[in-house]
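Colleagues,

Please find the record for the two-part complex below.
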Amino acid sequence: MASKWGPDFAIRGSLNLTRRGHSILFSSRPVYFQSCPARAFTSSSRLRNVSNAATSRSEIPLGLFLWKRIRQLGVKSVMGLPGDMNLELLHYMKDANLNWVGNSNELNAAYAADGYSRIGGCTGVLLTTMAVGELSAINGIAGSYAENVKIVHVIAATGRKAQESKAVMHHTLGSSPNHRIYEKMSAPVRVAHCYLDDEKTAATEIDRVIHECHIHSRPVYIYVPVDMVHKPISTSSFDEPLLISRPESIEEARIKNSATEEVLSAIYSSKKPILLVDSHVLQFGAKSLVRDLAEKLQFPVFCPFMGKSIIEESKKYFYGTYNGKFSYPGVQEAVEDKSDLVIHLGPLPTDMNTGGFTAKVDPRKLISVEETRVIVRGKVFEGVYLKSFITALLSSLNTNKLPGPEPLTLPTPPTPTDLDTTQITQSYLWPRLGRFFRDGDIVFADGGTTHFGLQDATFPDITYVMQNHWASIGYATPAAFGGALAKRNELVEDEAGKTRGKGRVVLITGEGAIQLSVQEVGSMVKEGLPVIIIIINNGGYSIERCVIHPDAGYHDIATWDHNHMLEFFGVPDGVKRTHQVHTKDELETALELPEMKNPKGIQVLEIFTDKMDFPWRLKAFGRAYRDMKGQ
Amino acid sequence: MASKWGPDFAIRGSLNLTRRGHSILFSSRPVYFQSCPARAFTSSSRLRNVSNAATSRSEIPLGLFLWKRIRQLGVKSVMGLPGDMNLELLHYMKDANLNWVGNSNELNAAYAADGYSRIGGCTGVLLTTMAVGELSAINGIAGSYAENVKIVHVIAATGRKAQESKAVMHHTLGSSPNHRIYEKMSAPVRVAHCYLDDEKTAATEIDRVIHECHIHSRPVYIYVPVDMVHKPISTSSFDEPLLISRPESIEEARIKNSATEEVLSAIYSSKKPILLVDSHVLQFGAKSLVRDLAEKLQFPVFCPFMGKSIIEESKKYFYGTYNGKFSYPGVQEAVEDKSDLVIHLGPLPTDMNTGGFTAKVDPRKLISVEETRVIVRGKVFEGVYLKSFITALLSSLNTNKLPGPEPLTLPTPPTPTDLDTTQITQSYLWPRLGRFFRDGDIVFADGGTTHFGLQDATFPDITYVMQNHWASIGYATPAAFGGALAKRNELVEDEAGKTRGKGRVVLITGEGAIQLSVQEVGSMVKEGLPVIIIIINNGGYSIERCVIHPDAGYHDIATWDHNHMLEFFGVPDGVKRTHQVHTKDELETALELPEMKNPKGIQVLEIFTDKMDFPWRLKAFGRAYRDMKGQ
């Protein structure tokens, strides 16, 4: 069918046009795409099509147009569920060279799209049906909004006539239903939306919301009335590249320069500077830039809770986690008291990320590099954007003027008292898992004890995903599925054999958290993805047990037999692929198995721990949380 | 702990007070409670507490107050998931003699509360945490809104100070988060809500939203800031009963009388009347009233698609399903052409319920008895309520004046051509399942082929639950769990040994539909509920395969091995409790097994059918749907 609609389009290699008053930042190595998908568009095989694309003036159906535009973002897999209203839209996906995934439910699909975006570096895309589908997904989309993950949610709606006549279709509410009411429900968890009601404006509208998605790094919604799917749309806008970077005005450039000068001046005159590398560095795609900066500065680096893994932990200037008063001894003093300058990159001042709001740096010595502004010792530079600013800082930095601070001397962390047991304790478990990880691994951690426990692991150079701000339990299983899919998509094209392509995908979850979204294990099996699933079985919802009334029955959950999980999801030798360990010796043996080191297919490792044994950070947080609830 | 807060309260046996200008309809046999829970309040053991309750003037914590008030509605089990913000609220549940269920995820919990309400006849109650919990549940709540099911959704929110300071807590959105934004998102799927911000108004607010829940038969939201949970609240409002019936003004009574006269006059003068018994009869609790009415009238009765099971199908005046042009031969003519009066009780004119809007009765011969009005041959009586009107009609009806119409003569339905195969065909399967059902059974059907296929089964006197208007695939598994729990709660108290207490709970779902919400099978296992799970395995999403492009890959789903499902969810002899059948002989053998006839515990029956074999009604609907999408 592809030939019917003309040759596939490919984005041109290099552009520097002006459109609607904006300079277009898309180039042969676009800033946004630097992490991975740009390869697809700069390879010679793709470039061969450029002249065709530039001169073709055909029309294609709206549905196909939408998917082709999405494919141009580097997206290869689309999450979602089929539904009667989206079937016709679905049908054009193949012709746009997109892979339809087909998840087990819509919330899982949204989580998977989020994981896909975080690992793939491109937009996560989700297709659902109106009402039942989009509302099932909404908590996942809200998480992407909270954590600045790029998602395009495509929703197939009823036809325009049915909408106008307020037909009482299935999936509608009440006797004279507004078919667009759901769009109002999702308003707080997106930055833009459009209804593709008009074939004349559809192309512009699609481009507009994709632009908004990328500059804010947050979800957008595209509603497609089912009767619009086959309408012919001109492909002429394919000649213009998608505007996916934020345009910078002359005034903004001036402010950025002022901010850069001010920051450099503060850096050069400091004697005991500290660098804090935080969560928004990841979300706004500045990880490698910040690594370069840290390497140049050689300042002592701490990562707040959610910044973990952004800086390579083997670096001699890396000193661990800074989490206010819930840090190891000496850390809070080193950051807050003994420094004369604190550069905080990408701060996300949530309760958990600040040790229950106990992390407090004196504003008079603080440089805060945020999503849309830089604050230097109380002086605010608005409209300065994180990634753009760090790029400018890097290029202006004169390493000869840097202070060269002394290495820090921190007290030795307290030695756990329970290291000699045969049982697997929290204090033993998490550092051990840190040693299990390898460079290039991708680790998804669900929001239970794992987030707290893994802070005590020293990581090799892994990609670590934790949804700790939105903190929706059950997120990690589908997200790991999405991440594993993005990784596989990438591997197929990774001819350079980079390290990052070689790691494993590891999901660490609890026997409670996995229950919320377990069916996406079935999707991993369906796709043949070699995910290592580590289930920490501590007999209930430990994270909540630790907050209040630890013995209460409501912390208990249904007891599943994970030995049969893979069998149920269709793996005939599932029991052989499942290991259950109760002691340290058993754990050591399991972690050394060849199938755990280099999995050829899915693997399950269930680790049993005592239900009253909590990571120390979780205990501290539980206490703080009780005080913090506004009482 | 109960003693600390004084004796348990019980609603007084009989009341006829006036409060806020409303007459209170609550009596020793309240209209609303007639289906079941009233028993709890009228038994002598409960009445012994009345004098205590009437005179006690103690204060109890707000959390306990809320649960006690909910317990007074006849609710015994509360669905939901624990979360850090709702733990303190959860802790008071036991003292109110409520059973905390603990579901596997929040969407499932919402579905389960819906099923609990439909079977228990009382309100379904759901407790979640703010944001992640409530948004995960929202599609289930929307379904309850669409289908007029009573739900109280209690949400534990952050404390008031955190809300006022816009603290960046986990579960919040953005840098200066409005903690109440989620309340705006759910506005279209509820009829009332309150924030329990003030201990002085909390009691009144709780009563107000419970009242709204009951008179509209739709969901309400109660938000509890976590710092309010322990605030002392006076129990004095316990002296006044909950206002859960709609008060009737003198003017409304007058209009109702006029409508009754007009309807009686039309009935007495008719010669070929038809009675249509439709979905809202169920939702507004008028099933037994309507059965009485049908018995008195002895008019030919048809049930639209969603009205199936309301009328006993063994009655000689019952003639089957009326679904516009997707009815058996002769049905549409009998209803629309050959009648001179059509009384349509509880209409719900959705696309599926009207054969794709092809069911059309001439308004000049139509009496439509709707939720809040009666229309007699085009004359509208506003403010006349379904249940109240049918009660009035029954008491005014003079059976001597009834026309006594001739029995209908309808063509014999077409004989399926594939009855002789050994394979299990759609034409064979559904009538056979109809014969498997017994009086008193409760059958939950998921929204795939089952809704269409079961229309061809003749039912004994069962309770049949299908969520066909909202049509959210995956609904039935958690709903069946909720229904089975309500049934068990009821059984404990059923000293009279009524038939309805003796039936089985049967879930019929597809191998596609069950994937969306499968973890609630684990909840059935945890609670030891003897549900019979029948999985129709037709190799994908057949309902969508039938709509468009039947061979497309996106109709396929992950292949699970249901033989291991129960084992995974913790049933050691799960494989023995699972039967998989491919032929009619195997099906016959399985349906006759003692464990299927009288299950002592959970059972699974997986029935394999051909993926291109669809129920005839689904095929017809698929065709109509393609035409109906507003194109």
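Confidence is low (pLDDT under 50) at residues 1-55 of chain A.

Comments are welcome before we finalize the supplementary table.
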